[in-house]
């Protein structure tokens, strides 16, 4: 297991959709170990594989003292009429937080290392995490979901950090 370096905005791996995991081999097992170790630090709620430079569909989470992972996640349900609009941040956009609208509830389905079905669901922070990490796996950043004026402000702040 290894604590892995987080890729930051500007790295093309963050904009590349991740591939489905078709074989659960030693590489995938090692990836899961690294995801779990890397997400298990203060201030970290979720981590997608591409954030550590691996283009496979997997993410880990660390919410309410629960650390877990899911392979090949697909969001299968979100609340249609209940939303949250709180500040959101990202390990790949360090130090910046912006109001991001997300569904209040989300449910994702995928598999574990044994190929068994995994369901990850929740409200509020867990729902935000599921949506945020699946966006990463689809090659999106939360910045893409910001209102235009807020996005301009965010991009200016990012440029100032460089």
TrEMBL record:
Catalysis performed (reactions): N-terminal N-formyl-L-methionyl-[peptide] + H2O = N-terminal L-methionyl-[peptide] + formate
Protein's UniProt keywords contain Signal: no
One family name in Pfam for this protein: Pep_deformylase
Primary enzyme class: hydrolase
Co-factor note (free text): Binds 1 Fe(2+) ion.
Protein residues bound to Fe cation: 90, 132, 136
A Gene Ontology molecular function term of the record: peptide deformylase activity
Cofactor(s) in the UniProt record: Fe(2+)
Family listed: Belongs to the polypeptide deformylase family.
Protein name per the record: Peptide deformylase
Annotated organism of origin: Georgenia subflava
Underlying gene: def
């Amino acid at each position: 297991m290894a604590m892995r370096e987080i890729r930051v905005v500007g790295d093309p791996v963050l904009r590349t959709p991740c591939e489905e995991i078709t074989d659960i081999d030693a590489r995938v097992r090692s990836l899961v170990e690294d995801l779990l170790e890397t997400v298990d630090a203060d201030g970290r709620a979720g981590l997608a594989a591409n954030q550590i430079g691996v283009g496979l569909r997997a993410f880990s989470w660390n919410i309410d003292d629960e650390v877990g992972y899911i392979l090949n996640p697909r969001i299968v349900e979100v609340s249609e009429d209940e939303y949250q609009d709180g500040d959101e941040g990202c390990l790949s956009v360090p130090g910046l937080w912006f109001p991001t609208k997300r569904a209040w509830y989300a449910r994702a389905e995928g598999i574990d290392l044994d190929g068994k079905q995994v369901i990850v669901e929740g409200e509020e922070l867990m729902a935000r995490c599921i949506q945020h990490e699946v966006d990463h796996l689809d090659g999106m950043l939360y910045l893409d979901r910001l209102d235009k004026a807020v996005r301009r402000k965010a991009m200016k702040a990012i440029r100032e950090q460089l």
